[in-house]
């Protein structure tokens, strides 16, 4: 078995009311076990659509994992649709029902008549016991191929995948693994990275390289396909170092590294305290920092000075400075950073002021204009940015820029002696 197809079922997924986190979880888990996902498909709660999607997936790959549609309500039709495709009539399993009743009893509840359908199993299917919920998983194998059915509730799916599905799949999987590593960058567009890395694909082969732009920069993801685990890890490590060498300063981390955590680590290493002064980001920068456990050891606090009056009263920005240069200016950003250090008695501070949009811009100061400043050691660094995108995009990029700026500033500082 080289690959598997994935089918997620739920009208709420198609309408966008529920985000399909199951597919990402399954993809990562299967890849680590040497099973690649060849295709992902989503259909609504419609028996004919489910049956057609499963049939097409089996024709292509021979095996499909389906999540969702195993509950007790009328729109849960996955099991019935697959049973019809396999011509495997549903049969009531007393043992499944007894386990379900026992679970309800432990919770101080009584199952309803509707729950009885969850004890119906396609003839010939293997029941995958669900110790984390009421709908068991099912493994159905026959002439059409193999269909694995799991509930759509994320924690139930995750546990069944780990405890019941993976042991069965790994015995059929190839000996290789599918593993990925990433280099994380900030402040350089995807096109410029491509220029820096021109021809690198030949140097990293057989690894594949993907460019993944987002609000927090561009990630460069290397993937090893169907290689022995030791070889995959060795090639990925070599490839990551090659990318870091070729890209240089825009690199801030690898894999799941978070700039806020990296900044806090640097401040902790140097024994420094931090503060923030924000305008257009409205506390987003402080939120990024306080999402990290242990941030209170370093972060003293922040002020959201959204109005000009608040900048003057809370961050001690000169009213005359705002009149002369405007609230969105390098001069005011610098004053806000200095003000945050003084108000909180912090060793270093970041500030942000800008025009997030969608309105409020002018020809001289358009939407997306942001000034980011860092104050440390009596000096201030300020950078002017023009960020594209929506209001949320501008705010998110501004917070990332502030974290990157101060992190770079502290990274080269030697810790105090003693």
How many E strands? 17
Distance from first to last alpha carbon: 59 Å
Number of domains as seen in the coordinates: 3
Mean pLDDT: 94
State the low-pLDDT regions, or none: none
Biggest β-sheet: strands ordered side by side in the sheet: 2-1-3-8-7-6
The CATH topology of the largest domain is given as Molybdenum Cofactor Biosythetic Enzyme, Chain A
Question: Structural class per helix/strand content?
Answer: alpha/beta
Number of helical regions? 15
**CATH H-tier superfamily of the largest domain:** MoaB/Mog-like domain
User: Rg from C-alpha positions?
Assistant: 27 Å
SSE topology:
Elements: E1 3-9, H1 11-15, H2 21-32, E2 36-43, H3 47-61, E3 63-67, H4 78-86, E4 90-92, H5 94-106, E5 120-122, E6 126-128, E7 137-142, E8 145-150, H6 154-170, E9 177-185, H7 190-196, H8 200-204, E10 208-214, E11 217-227, H9 229-247, E12 251-254, H10 259-270, E13 274-278, H11 284-290, E14 299-304, H12 308-315, H13 319-325, H14 330-344, E15 348-354, E16 369-376, E17 379-386, H15 391-411
Describe it.
By secondary structure, the chain is of the alpha/beta class. It folds into three domains: 3-170, MoaB/Mog-like domain (Molybdenum Cofactor Biosythetic Enzyme, Chain A); 177-254, Alpha-Beta Plaits, CATH 3.30.70.2860; 259-411, Alpha-Beta Complex (Maf protein), CATH 3.90.950.20. It has helices at residues 11-15, 21-32, 47-61, 78-86, 94-106, 154-170, 190-196, 200-204, 229-247, 259-270, 284-290, 308-315, 319-325, 330-344, 391-411, and strands spanning 3-9, 36-43, 63-67, 90-92, 120-122, 126-128, 137-142, 145-150, 177-185, 208-214, 217-227, 251-254, 274-278, 299-304, 348-354, 369-376, 379-386. A six-stranded mixed sheet has the order 2-1-3-8-7-6, with helices on both faces. A five-stranded mixed sheet has the order 14-13-15-16-17, sandwiched between helices. Strands 10-11-9-12 form a four-stranded antiparallel sheet, with helices on both faces. Helix 3 packs across helix 4 and helix 10 runs parallel beside helix 15 (391-411). The longest helix has 21 residues, at 391-411. The protein is elongated and about 80 Å long.
